[in-house]
Amino acid sequence: KNIVILISGGGSNMRALVEAAQREGWDKxxxxxxxxxxxxxxxxxxxxxxxxxxxxxxxxxxxDFASREAFDEALAALIDPHQPxxxxxxxxxxxxxxxxxxxxxxxxxxxxxxxxxxxxxxxxHRRAIEAxxxxxxxxxxxxxxxxxxxxxxxxxxVPILPGDTPDALAARVLxxxxxxxxxxxxxxxxxx
Length: 192
Ligand code: GRF
What we know:
Pathway: Purine metabolism; IMP biosynthesis via de novo pathway; N(2)-formyl-N(1)-(5-phospho-D-ribosyl)glycinamide from N(1)-(5-phospho-D-ribosyl)glycinamide (10-formyl THF route): step 1/1. The chain is of the alpha/beta class.
């Protein structure tokens, strides 16, 4: 079984997923391998890491396309040869079209840095602090056409501490994302 991961930036969640897959073994507990990492940005640090690791990588710049539909068609053309059992969004900062979402229905998963359904969209950590929340966290969920909605597959909760800045909270959440995402994927692959 193949997994395709889509990234835009640092790719630390992608790294956590690749390392879990390699540790758990594609022929053992995971039963799947990360067969491609695709970024919409050529300068994404995660892409360089994946290349150095010997993974198949591709860059598809959204700037080269006139519409979201055209970009998503080209993206699907890169993904489909892998016949992925899962397409994982890991810090992939593009809104996907309903057509793309439908094409991968049931096997398209995202991680979002808030406790959904609270704080969809951007700037989640600042908003959680300003709202006076006592906790924040991350959510792994199925992707539907509506942004940051879709069935919740798993969540991790972290405290918001007195004097927290958005950056400090983001770092605390991100380190939990690196545990959450691989564990949800492992559960999924095990058929739970
Ligand atoms: C993560 O916080 C993820 O939840 C959000 O963007 C960040 C990506 O970080 N969507 P990385 O690229 O995985 O390091």
